[in-house]
Amino acid sequence: MKCEGKEIVSRLDRAYKIKSEDFLAIEIWEKTRDPFKVLIATILTQNTTDKGAKKAYEELDKEVGITAEGLSRADPEVIKRCIRKVGLHNNKTKVIKEVSTKILNEYGGDINKVLDLGLPKAREKLVELPGVGKKTADVLLITCRDYPVFPIDTHIFRISKRLGIDGNYDKVSSFWREVSDNLRLRAHLLLITHGRATCKAIKPKCDTCVLNDCCEYYARLRGSQGPETS
Ligand code: SF4
Fold this sequence. Notes:
Elements: H1 5-15, H2 24-32, H3 35-45, H4 50-63, H5 68-73, H6 76-82, H7 89-107, H8 112-115, H9 121-126, H10 134-145, H11 154-163, H12 169-180, H13 184-197, H14 216-222
Catalytic activity: Hydrolyzes mismatched double-stranded DNA and polynucleotides, releasing free thymine
Pfam families: HhH-GPD
Protein name: thymine-DNA glycosylase
C-alpha cells in the first residue's frame, strides 16, 4: 500500500462528516441503549440500505415491538409483512424469530449477558446466534461496548482491496483496528461513508478521491496495466 493506514483515516476524517442517522445501528443505539434492538437493526441492514432497513425497523417496532419476547412469539407472517421491503425478507423473518427465541431461552431475553462476557468470549457466543456472522457480532461489540474490534462490511472490503490491503475478514479487520486506535468506530463509519459516496462498487470517483495517490487500483487505472476487471 502506498500510504500509512493512519494517514488514510486522517484524510477521510477531514473529507467527510459522519451523521448518526445514516447508520441505523448507531442511531438505534443512541436512541435506546438497547443491544437487542441494535442486533435486530443490524440484521435488517444485511444486504440492503440503511434507509430501507430503517423503514422496516420502524414498522416492526410499531406492529410487534423490538424485544426478544415479542419477536419470538410474533406471527412470522406479521414480521414478514413489516419487513417486506428489505432484501431477503423471508430469510430475515426466519432469522429474527430464531435469534429472538434463542436469546429469550438462553439469556432470559437479555443480550447484555453475552456482551458482558468480554472478549473473546462475547464474540464467540454472538457468532453462535442464528444470522450473526463476524461482521454483525463486531458491529454489536463496537457500538454497544466499544470493544477493540473493527467490523468489515462490503464497502470496507472493496476499498481495502483497491488500496492494496488484501486478505480475509480477520486480516483486513486487524489492519484497520491497529491503524485507527481509539477512533475505531469513527474510522469504520468513515470508510463506509467513503464507499457510499466516492469509492463506489461501479464507477468509483477516483479523480476527486482524497486517497487517489495512495491507491493501487487508481495507479493501475492510470498505468499500463489498465483498470481492475473484477
Ligand atoms: S482512488 Fe478510486 S478506487 Fe482508489 S480509493 Fe479512491 S475512489 Fe476508491
